[in-house]
Structure formats: structure tokens, C-alpha cells
Amino acid sequence: MTAMPERTILSIAPKAPPEENGRVKLLLVDDDPDNLLALQAILEPLGQDLMLAQTGTDALRLCLDHDFAAILLDVRMPEMDGFETAEMIRARKKSLQTPILFVTAYRSDEQLFRGYNLGAVDFLFKPIVPEILQSKVNVFVDLRRTEQLLRRKAEELARAEQRYRAVLEAAPDAMVITNQAGTIELANSRADTLFGRSREALIGRDIHSVLPAWECPDEGLPRTSLQPTPEQRLIAYRDDGSPFPAEITRNSFHTPDGLLITTAIRDATDQAHAEARIQKTNLELERRVAERTAELRYSNEALRQFAWAASHDLQEPIRTVATYSQWLSQIMNGNLGARESKMLATIEQHASRLNQLLAALRQYIQVSDSGQHARTSVDCNAVVKAAAWNLEAMIQESGASIECGALPSISSLELPLVQLFQNLISNAIKYRSDDLPVIRISAQEGENCWIFSVQDNGIGIDPKYFDYIFGVFRRLHGSQKSGTGIGLAICRAAVERLGGRIWVESTPGNGSTFHVSLPV
Ligand code: ADP
After folding, report:
1. Which of 106, 285, 291, 511 is the most core-located residue (most Cβ within 10 A)?
2. Does the Cβ of 484 fall within 6 Å of ligand 1?
3. Is the minimum distance from the CB of 18 to ligand 1 under 6 angstroms?
4. pLDDT, tens digit, 9 for 90 and up, residues 309-329
């Protein structure tokens, strides 16, 4: 760069912006190209971007587009001297703070005074000593670098804070950030709405003024704990002093300035109302169920007493009817016509049938009541034996065989169990087919229960009657077989009293199996 045209703006700065290449810009202004070249040669070893101008106007133009770390300004220039140029540079806001070093051949107080007045940071006197120039300029290079670094850090910080605030704002709940003592340091706009108080008014206040029961989470949390505390229901206060229920979760994080706590707060008014409504409904339901249960218990007891009394009180008149009809037939011995004798026999038959029904009814009532008694360990093999012994005549007469597998001992009541097996075995014989009755009794373990099965090879039951037959006075084969229609109702009452269940499986013509499950 030996030949240089007059009045030129020359830049030897590479294209990349200084932030990227790490270099700063320096402006050298002198009307003498040789001087410019000399300055350039001295400063080039600093490795910075040098821009050259030969007039004050060119220097001003460059100041418009570039931000210089320092300007080296020759004092004596033809059109606009260094001082005038400096004045104009200072007049612009952008270059108000740019350090200016005046280069002059004359050491005069007046010049110094004027220069410093115009904001000069230093004077360099010709002839220039390269080392001094370099070290002076280096100070400004370092200053600019530090300034750039600080600016970048400040920008990064501002960006991080912006992100942080955006996250805080995007939170679905009101969020406040406090220090350990509970002083609010930050709050999002939802907090304004929730507490009816501006964010500025919240910041710096004690969180206890809006959430009196707020507590700092355990300080012993690990430094990186991201686990929020479990949800808590507290009473919060709006600006006007009105309370409302709030759900809060807290999260703490350590910062160089100490522990900070984020508290997410949600208005739980609607939820509290819904809970109160559910609670009220539940209480009302419980009250109604209790009322209804009491009513049912009362009417059940009344019914039971009525049935018991009726079955007892009816016994006597029936016995009288039977006795008197027997007496009448004895007194009239042989003097009654065939028609009258048949009528008396019908009266006796019906009286005895009524007696049977009443006895069965009493048995049913007794079984329904038996659950109140204390249970003992009952050997079911002995139970089946006792039932078969009670039915000995029937078994002999029918030629029935009973095959009984190993049965368990269970905690139960013996009497209802005997009644249960007795009814099931007698039905198996009564509702036999043309084959000799074969009855198989077995037990297998279920889930927390034993399942007993009484299988027969009798006439079977149509599936549509599987439930029906367990009701009181329900009979399917009433005309062909004697019975009261209460046997299976007694079985069901006994099983239910023992906490179990009874059901039947059958195919008409192929026998039936009655299953009974009883709790272990
Ligand atoms: P009862 O035997 O006195 O009629 P139950 O209550 O014991 O009354 O039985 C109700 C009805 O169920 C019987 O009338 C009968 O029709 C039917 N039943 C009961 N057990 C059997 C069985 N093992 N096989 C076929 N039918 C049965």
C-alpha cells in the first residue's frame, strides 16, 4: 500500500463483524497519506481492523456506519481540522463515547485545553514513538473487548431472563418465586388476577400476606431436587381481604444467592364447592340408606314375628279341625255314606297338609335366624352322615346310593348344614328318574371358599326355573310329588346366613347338580 489517491476512505478491515472475528475497529484520520501509512504500519501488529480517512468529512461518514474502539485524529487538516471533526463526532449520539486521541506536532496548552474540552482522552505528539502509540491504543482495544464481552453477557442474561419469564408466564397456574423467608421476588400475570393485586405490588411483599399458612419446603432437599412438594390446600387472601381455598405446590432450587422457592397456586373454589356438594350428597345418601335399612330391619322383624306367630297360632285351629273330623268319623262309625266319608277324609288330608306347610314355614324362619349363633369347626363328612341318617327310610325305600368324596371341615353352624344336605339329598331322591337314584357329593377348593356339589341322575330341571325354585312355596312337580315348596328356600336361607351362595346346573332328563359355595 504505497500509492494512495488523495481524499480517500480506505478500510483494511475484513468483512466479518468484530464480534465474530474478535477484532475491534480503529479509525486513523490524517490528511497526509504518508502519515496514514506510518500510523497503519505501527498499528497493524495489533491485529485489529484499521480504517483510514484523509478528511474530517470522511471520518464522520465512517463514524456513521462503524463503531470504533478509538479514533486517532490529526489536529492539523485543511478543510475541517481535528478539533472541528472531534466536535462533530461528539455531537453524534452513536460516537459520543468513542475515545479520541489527537495526533499533533505542537505541544501548546491552548491545544491541550481545547482537545480535552472536546473529550479527548489523550494527545500523541509527533514524531510518534511506535511502542507508545501501540501501548496506548492497546488500552482502548482491551477496553472495547471487555465492553463487548460484558455486552454479550448482559444480552445472554437478558435472553435467559426473558425465557425464564416466558416460562413463568406460560405456566397454567399463578406462580410466585420467593426467597426462604417468603419475600416475593417474582410473580406471573396469573398471580395478579388470582390475588387481585398488581404484580409490582406483590413483588417485595411477604407471601404470608396472601398465603398465611405458607411454609418454606424442607431445606434438606437435594440441590437438584425437581420434585415438587405434594399438593396442599391452604386458605389464600385476595387484595380486598376475601379468603378463598387454594391448591399449592412448592418447588425449591438453589442459586448462588440462596434457596429460591416457586409456589404454584390454583384457585380451588370450584373444586371445594364440588367436594362440599359430593360430601353433602354422600351424607344425604348415607342418611337415607340408614333410614331405609332401619325401616327394612323393622319390617323384616315385624314380618318374621308375624310369620312365626301365624304359624304357631294356626297350628291349634288346624289340629282342632283334624281332631274333630276324626272324632266325627269315629262317632258315625259305619253310619256315614260314601260321599260324607270321602268329604271327611278330604278335610283330614288338607288339615294334615296345612300342618306340614306350617312346620316347614317355622323351619324356614328358624334357619333365616340362625346366623346370629357362634360358629365352630364343622366336619362336613359328619354332616352328610347325619343328613343321610335322618333320611334312612327314604334311602332304603328308593334303593338310592350316596357316593361321598372327602369333605373338608369348615367354620360354620352344624344344624343349617345338616338341613341343607338333607334337603338336597331328599330332593335328589324325590325327583328321581326311572333309574335307581345315584347321588354324588363332593367338595373342591375355590377362591377363599369351598364349593360343595350334590349331583343326581334324576329328572332334571328346565334352565328357565333355575332361580325360581329357590323361592318360598315354589314347586315344579307339585302334582306328582309330595312336598311343601320350601325345601330349597330353606337351603338358600341357610347358605346366605352362612355367607355363601347356592345355584343349580341341570339338563332336563339328565339329572341336576346343586352347588353351594361357603366361605373358608
Ligand atoms: P319341594 O321339594 O317340597 O317341592 P323344594 O323347594 O325342595 O320343594 O323344591 C322346589 C322345586 O324344585 C321342587 O318342587 C322340584 O320341582 C324342583 N326340584 C328340587 N330339587 C330337584 C331335583 N334334584 N331334581 C329336579 N327337580 C328338583
Report:
1. 511
2. yes
3. no
4. 777 788 888 888 888 988 888
